[in-house]
Amino acid sequence: MIYETIKKSHFQILQSLFSQIERILKINKLSLITTDVVEAARDSLVLGIK
Length: 50
Known about the structure:
Layout: H1 2-27, H2 35-44
Helix pairs in contact: 1-2
Organism: Carnobacterium maltaromaticum LMA28
Protein name: Potential ATP-binding domain protein
Keywords: ATP-binding, Nucleotide-binding
């Protein structure tokens, strides 16, 4: 059960990360995912600790 929860959490984090990447690309009119884009997306994620 805990393993499934962890798996689900990781998937949700990845989904959020890719959503942020897409948003950053669109806002900045970019077509290429760079390290800077990924880092900006990662930095903008708000992760809570339970």
